Model the fold of this input.
Amino acid sequence: MKKIPVAVLGATGAVGQRFVQLLENHPWFEVVAVTGSDRSTNQKYGQVCRWILPEPMPKPVKEYLVLPSDPSLVEVPVVFSALPSEKARVIEPEFARAGSLVFSNASAYRYEPDVPILLPEVNPGHTGLLAAQRSNRQWSGAIVTNPNCTSTGMTITLKALQDTFGLRRVFAVSLQAVSGAGYPGVPSLDIMDNVIPFIGGEEEKVELEPRKMLGRLEETGIQPADFVISAHTNRVPVSDGHVVCLSIEMDQSADLPTVRRAIEDYLPPEVCAELPSTPKPVIIYRDEPDRPQPRLDRGTGDGMTTVVGRLRTDPLLHIKLVVLSHNTIRGAAGGSIYNAELLVQQGMLG
Amino acid sequence: MKKIPVAVLGATGAVGQRFVQLLENHPWFEVVAVTGSDRSTNQKYGQVCRWILPEPMPKPVKEYLVLPSDPSLVEVPVVFSALPSEKARVIEPEFARAGSLVFSNASAYRYEPDVPILLPEVNPGHTGLLAAQRSNRQWSGAIVTNPNCTSTGMTITLKALQDTFGLRRVFAVSLQAVSGAGYPGVPSLDIMDNVIPFIGGEEEKVELEPRKMLGRLEETGIQPADFVISAHTNRVPVSDGHVVCLSIEMDQSADLPTVRRAIEDYLPPEVCAELPSTPKPVIIYRDEPDRPQPRLDRGTGDGMTTVVGRLRTDPLLHIKLVVLSHNTIRGAAGGSIYNAELLVQQGMLG
Amino acid sequence: MKKIPVAVLGATGAVGQRFVQLLENHPWFEVVAVTGSDRSTNQKYGQVCRWILPEPMPKPVKEYLVLPSDPSLVEVPVVFSALPSEKARVIEPEFARAGSLVFSNASAYRYEPDVPILLPEVNPGHTGLLAAQRSNRQWSGAIVTNPNCTSTGMTITLKALQDTFGLRRVFAVSLQAVSGAGYPGVPSLDIMDNVIPFIGGEEEKVELEPRKMLGRLEETGIQPADFVISAHTNRVPVSDGHVVCLSIEMDQSADLPTVRRAIEDYLPPEVCAELPSTPKPVIIYRDEPDRPQPRLDRGTGDGMTTVVGRLRTDPLLHIKLVVLSHNTIRGAAGGSIYNAELLVQQGMLG
Amino acid sequence: MKKIPVAVLGATGAVGQRFVQLLENHPWFEVVAVTGSDRSTNQKYGQVCRWILPEPMPKPVKEYLVLPSDPSLVEVPVVFSALPSEKARVIEPEFARAGSLVFSNASAYRYEPDVPILLPEVNPGHTGLLAAQRSNRQWSGAIVTNPNCTSTGMTITLKALQDTFGLRRVFAVSLQAVSGAGYPGVPSLDIMDNVIPFIGGEEEKVELEPRKMLGRLEETGIQPADFVISAHTNRVPVSDGHVVCLSIEMDQSADLPTVRRAIEDYLPPEVCAELPSTPKPVIIYRDEPDRPQPRLDRGTGDGMTTVVGRLRTDPLLHIKLVVLSHNTIRGAAGGSIYNAELLVQQGMLG
Done:
């Protein structure tokens, strides 16, 4: 099969680098263009990009000239966007109008009624929104977003519970890695020997996004799932891997072994069961009393698996548990690539 | 005034060192003896104690011989206990029997019906239990405990709310410093670039202790306060200072300014308003959107003030906020010393 | 005594904040003006300055309007400069021309032949350069610099050895705290679980500055001391406190106890023995085999004492030892203030 | 080829775990037994071993019963020893006497005249010592040690220089990861926001071992290389990866490009050019001004490559450079396995 040519928008930043790294040797996609801001355009990616990943920079991309984020210069069917939200708001529609499928990490369009926030294991059917999106906006392409990195792991876990028991109330407290803030991101003086109990705009996202993803696609758009989330979000001195402590009330209570089985037995929908990025397994439950932990568990399933542990009874709601997910892989670049694979599988490309 | 002679039990450990350091130049108390395990007895404190505090070791104590924890060798009216819980269970009663007032950091006796868990600003009247304790146990001394380091700051904050609005449900998630685990405590390989979402026995303590301290002293003992707590406890790579994210439902809802005023205006009971360790102020509310933070706020009021911030509406209960308190000062040694001051003030000594 | 009015240039940055904090309640100086860049001028210091120190922001300064760094608006006899080097190059001479004594942390003028790099304990006589400086440059004020934060502690230690034994060759490897890079400075993703074996321009400074400070004031300027330094400089995940490993060859070898005595007995010159910032003691030698350490020793003497330890024989040169000094206090703001005190004492003010 | 059965002594510790992990799927060796201390014997490895690596525990080994370190119970031709030094001193000879080739990480026998410290790229011929060792000690097996983790990377780099230019004097200052101290090893309270400028016995090893490895095998044993090393060793808050700053005087000076070429072009001896663990390449030189760095470079060549950078002129000796090497892979378990491969290749097995 000839690979599908793709571009990475905002390729020199932290998430952009992750896209470039994860797409090396991808069986379906091939990076043919990278874009950046004025500071970096027309220079070689290998020279202008301050590479911050332990994995080496892929050879061919090193030699690419960084292009402006302009669809007339970058004509490809699939675009991965690592743009900051303000830029994404302007630039992503230009690519969608020009016919590209834009897979975006930015929050700019997540909350539009005709734009899906997509997790293949959770709501593959929400791509049904794209028809309306194209018709509303007169685009030949489309925008598909992936959720905030903290919403990701918890939504996959909640999906397993929603299917079996229904959901009513969720308390979520995150302990988030610094890579979630991009690069240069969090100054070391702010986070060394410290916790910052605040991340701008994050709690609002975490209280909103899971309900949209777990909602029902109706003719008029997504009907958000009918449960309530309360979130506290914290930054901690960890490089990669977001931990979320969850307390959950379900429609229907269940004993711990039954809940655990629902989590462990969770299978992704057929359509995304065998995509190149499908985590094996989607969710893993760790038995040890002190897991999941970022340093030990974030690499599970090449950073795509959601790791759950510490299931126990909650004195206020029904259950407590802890979720971990790799924020720059599963929660960002890897999640976008997985979304693109889903759309290829669904025949929505070209 | 002649100073009251005191001893520190378990003086070579992390909390024991904090006792020794905080008691240097105390206006009422003077350390006359330090005890330790077999490994260290009959050696000079300055030689056998691996001092881990930035403050220098007090000169006179340096020369003390470390004694066994035996009341026949250490006859003092006031004893501060930094013993581990198993040892505390055996040794603390021996000192109480011999007539000492034992101020204990251990959890061994916290849950006994005739032993108070004491915070001077919260429940000074609970020292009323000591009469029953002495009579039940035939002790001429007594045991007074201070709460778990995580319970401390949250209980002081909850007290301010309980007084004004009543309490129904509390959701608490901690981000705890490594010094809470003592020394050597948490191995660096376990916590560097990591979070451990588990601390043995901690969640049980946090769900129990605030209700006892906020309960009512009745003839038959303490009637625990009638609200429910759900706790998740986490270890994070921070040296000192425990952060607790709280969501709270009160008997009576109130708008945020009213709640804030209740917190800021909280005054300690008269009896503990002017003790040497009384924090000035008891609670401080920080306006910045990203405070309290351990590195910046743990030293407030010499580590004795409870620092609160981020008061906002909770979508499930009434309010959310964040509490910080210094775990080895306010939450351990400093809290015990403050308790001892209270009993002196109440005339319960000697 | 009426206090001398002083201004802090570049007061909103990391070193600028340290100046403001250390000058609170200074017995001789009173901050009457703070300056900043366009971004912050004409706003209240308390609002525009993102305060990053654990010590609270001094009350009165909070209300000051931040002024532009313009001597016509800020007429004071003493100016402390926390400006970045490029700005210092332009602005500091303007203040010197206008008559202020400028105490500068920047490297901009350190290497000019008529500008002293000053450490009161080491080379108080180098203020003799100011006469030439004023005459050369037609300034009524003057510029006095303090050394790079890594040079500071090692030069004080080398001074003690130079006086007694002479110096020939010095090998210096630093492990430097992130606060040395200012704020926001080092991104957390760069330094968490990491070492960066490079700090731009630092090795050149460390190889040059100690020789100038330990040199002789002659009619034609400073004759640098006749020894050679080789430096490696590294950034490590430490908030405050620079460690320097030194191997030293002296003109005249000596046994370890003699060397140690020379270090411990080092007395500052009479003129700076009783200034408000004179460290007590200037140098402290720690006996423990594993000291000095940043977390435990950086606060010694309120951050002004140089802490030395691990004196031992070097197989290539004569001796090895380790030096620690607080980089933002002794090595920056505190050092500048100490320099200003020296000039007041020398009668060089006004 | 049938795999050679091997045992791991001290398999539950940090280095022992690394052996078990690296030997999973090894093409030549198969772990058939693991040993441990009394605390763990006769229990399943998977239950008794507190696994601290991010890589999962290999399935089959999980089910092994941990055996005592007794050669009558563990009869295998190859034994990897992760024993602490005091135990190694007693137990390793028992296995050598019983006929096993013991590949040891311990320092217990490193300095014996008839025991080689072996790095395949550096001194493969030193296995010639084994004949004398067997005859001296009446062993049918033998002990082969690998160097201290800090000596490893620097010796490989020094070898490249020695071959071309000769060596005279070496200054070495290390910044070492906490995993070098084993598990639980360094308490987090000791190293968080800190540097410890002391590692017991380390400087002596670093000053001695490279000279033995770079020495000449003569009839009477190894003649250590004729140059002098001065070492300072430091612990820093890094999980894995030791950095060493080196200043080097060679017999024959050379310009920087020539030195760099000697490093980059270094080829391992033929006999170890194609072993399963041979790093590809043996040494890599990084051009960036701020590399090597532990977090970014320790994984190079699966943790077996020595990473060098920052070559520059030294004002005292000839050159300065920085070396990085993964301390638990290249500097411990991986190095031992590589040594065993060399002996198989040399036909010294069985």
The longest strand of chain B covers residues 167-176. Residues 97 and 137 of chain B are 8 Å apart (CA to CA).
